[in-house]
UniProtKB/TrEMBL annotation:
<feature type="region of interest" description="Disordered">
    <location>
        <begin position="57"/>
        <end position="78"/>
    </location>
</feature>
<dbReference type="InterPro" id="IPR029068">
    <property type="entry name" value="Glyas_Bleomycin-R_OHBP_Dase"/>
</dbReference>
<feature type="domain" description="PhnB-like">
    <location>
        <begin position="6"/>
        <end position="130"/>
    </location>
</feature>
<dbReference type="Pfam" id="PF06983">
    <property type="entry name" value="3-dmu-9_3-mt"/>
</dbReference>
<protein>
    <submittedName>
        <fullName>PhnB protein</fullName>
    </submittedName>
</protein>
<dbReference type="InterPro" id="IPR028973">
    <property type="entry name" value="PhnB-like"/>
</dbReference>
Amino acid sequence: MASRLNPYISFAGDARQAMEFYKSVFGGELTLNTFGESGMAGTPAADQIMHSQLDSPSGYTIMASDTPPGMEHEPGTNVSVSLSGDDGEELRGYWEKLSAEGTVSVPFEKQMWGDEFGACTDKFGISWMVNVIQS
């Protein structure tokens, strides 16, 4: 297996909902493992996500978990996810879904470097950058 680079996102108890949302955006195969399945059965965190992974048909991988009890959680302050490529139709579709119910910080439009680009924070507090490379 080749090395790959992908985001790993921590959530404050809503990792399952966030990952199901991302699956609705990107499609693909989602695996979810709870703390309860990993030795913490019977605890308040038993149903929370210890590890999850979404592998999309386009080759994107997103990993995430709920923040374990006792650890601090600061959503969106230490991660941005960048989507880029030359398939404008695909990337514009992702943009529409990610920015819906979120906050747009840079409108998706042609930029001074010639590409279409937008930046937003989705409804779960995660920052996204979408760039359509112009040939």
